[in-house]
Specification:
about 100 residues; mainly alpha; single chain
Length: about 100
C-alpha cells in the first residue's frame, strides 16, 4: 500500500511538473509573440510618422514655392506701377527716410 501511495505521489508530482513546464513554455512563447507584435506596431508607427513628415515637408515646400511666385508677381506689379508713376524704387525709399 505504501508503494502504491508513493507511486501515486510520484505520478502526481511528475504530472504537475510537466504541467508547470508546459505552462512556463506557453508563457515564454506568449511573451515572445507579444514582444514581436509590439515591435511590429512600433515599426509601422515609425514608418507612418516618416511618411507624414515627408508629406508635410512636401506640402510646406509647395506652399513656399507658391509664396515665392506670388512675391515675384507682386514685385513685378509694384515695379510696373512705379514705372507708370514715373518713380523708381530707390526714389521712394529715399523719400521715406
Amino acid at each position: 500500500m505504501s508503494e502504491t501511495l508513493s507511486l501515486i505521489s510520484l505520478l502526481v508530482g511528475l504530472v504537475t511538473s510537466v504541467g508547470g513546464g508546459i505552462a512556463w513554455w506557453r508563457a515564454i512563447v506568449r511573451k515572445q509573440y507579444a514582444a514581436e507584435r509590439d515591435f511590429g506596431h512600433l515599426k509601422r508607427n515609425y514608418q507612418q510618422l516618416a511618411q507624414n513628415v515627408n508629406a508635410m515637408y512636401k506640402e510646406s515646400d509647395q506652399r513656399f514655392d507658391r509664396l515665392d511666385l506670388e512675391l515675384v508677381e507682386l514685385k513685378g506689379l509694384l515695379a510696373a506701377l512705379l514705372a507708370r508713376m514715373g518713380a523708381s524704387e530707390s526714389e521712394i525709399l529715399r523719400s521715406r527716410k
